[in-house]
Amino acid sequence: MSPTSAFSLMSALCAVFAFIAQSSAYWIMTCPQRNLVGRFDPLKSPKKKSGHVHTISGGNAFGFDMDYPQARTSTCSSCPIKEDLSNYWSPALYYKRKDGKFELVKQDGLGDGSSGMNIYYVQNHGGDASSKINAFPEGFRMIAGNPLKRNFTGDFEAEAINFSCLDYSGPAPAYVNAIPNKKCANGLRAQVFFPTCWKGGDAVDSPDHKGHVAYPTSGKYDDGPCPASHPHRLPSLFFEVTWRVQDYEWNQADGHPFVFAHGDPTGYGFHGDFVNGWHVPTLQKAVDTCTDTQGDLASCKAFTFLSTEVSKSCTIPNPVEEDVVGPLAKLPGCNPVQKGPEMAEKIDCPGDDSVKIKGPTTGPIKKPKGKLPEGSATWAGYGQFTGGGSGDFGSSETTNDVSGAGGKSDVKAASDGGSGGGSSSSKGSNAKNEEKLKQMQAENDEKLAQMNAKNAASMKAMEEANAAAGSHVKKHKHRRRHHA
After folding, report:
1. How far is CA 271 from CA 115, 229, 371, 412, 426, in A?
2. Cα Rg for the chain, rounded, in angstroms?
3. pLDDT of 289 higher than 90
4. Can you tell me the distance from the alpha carbon of 222 to that of 238, in angstroms, rounded to the nearest whole number?
5. N or C: which end of the chain has fewer CB within 10 A?
6. Of 146, 268, 153, 259, which Cα lies nearest the Cα of 208?
7. Structure pTM?
8. Residue 287 to residue 318: CA distance in whole angstroms
9. In the predicted model, what is the mean pLDDT of the chain?
10. Backbone angles phi, psi at 83, to 5 degrees
11. Rounded to whole angstroms, what are the CA distances from 308 to 43, 185, 226, 382?
């Protein structure tokens, strides 16, 4: 077993997964890369830069505006299922330094093989096992959460936003609805559970991107009967995003030093966005036939999978001419820190017009070239959630030509400029972001190597102890405790 495999297995043994009812079938996509980090939100801010920074995963046809046909032109995805070219995004997290400046917090899953974003598809039937779960239809989009919230309102929408302060040395910590005021030894995991009830028919969106969906009327926010106004069930979509908060000095005496990109230090305003890019018949087949209750993606025979290299290299150049990494005098956009408990105020931002966008604001940020590689019928799982797979993730650098199983994708690294010309200021800003991200990755690699060495020794000791006792070590699969 390689050191990285030991680390992956140790992580799997220690990790605690989602709020999954004991009888529910589900699968987990572990996305080993982000497409890009920047001010983009095609739902709330179509055809222009968004008000705050997001971290985006999924297909590489992502842009300032999005529709289903555009999503389906992707030639790769930073997530593993070939038939899913959707996009998933949530706000970035920043660290507020002692001098008042802000730095982008490192996120797991920046091409190093770890998974900074886990995406769950859960088949919750609301207590009626005979109820049909409908695949997301073409054109479907939705949002969960409210970025203006700064207090816990007690409803299901509020309960669906929560956090886990990861510490693999002991029992799984309790979930909380705000960023915890404690140091998290193995990272902070932000979690958002989307509504599962749907109006049906052609209601694929609504003006606020929420009205066409709803949470259950009773039971739990993640499983219960649907309201009469929204009688149809959808797959229960759930995000996890893990931030490396353990890498930052705790300077503040009055609480944690972190704030989300929209000026939220509480976490109550965390949110997630989804634009459907699935091959809908495949998703429906998976919902109908994939019945594993341990979240094992490889057991679902409806899918084919992109190679790890394709997913890790599926990045998009950032066309917004600004530094989002820092240190920054203020959060990108107009997002003063607002602690609440009252709802945050929307801030007018006339000076933001000086931040320019390189290239078009319609269609993909960079038109995908080539074609989607052929998928493999098997998936090794990146060594993350099973004892299998090599766990050797190789170089974290992206390449210009990435070979998939049976095909080739013309995917280029984020440092390779976007379509159209581009000013010298844009190139300088993007180069600065790229250099900082590389530095962050190098620091991650160093810390990972140290953890690998320690975990390899621990795994060896465990294996020797098991051998001495004549025990049989089984392959482990884990899920989270159901949220009480």
Report:
1. 19, 24, 32, 29, 29
2. 21
3. yes
4. 9
5. C
6. 146
7. 0.77
8. 35
9. 78
10. -80, -5
11. 29, 28, 38, 7
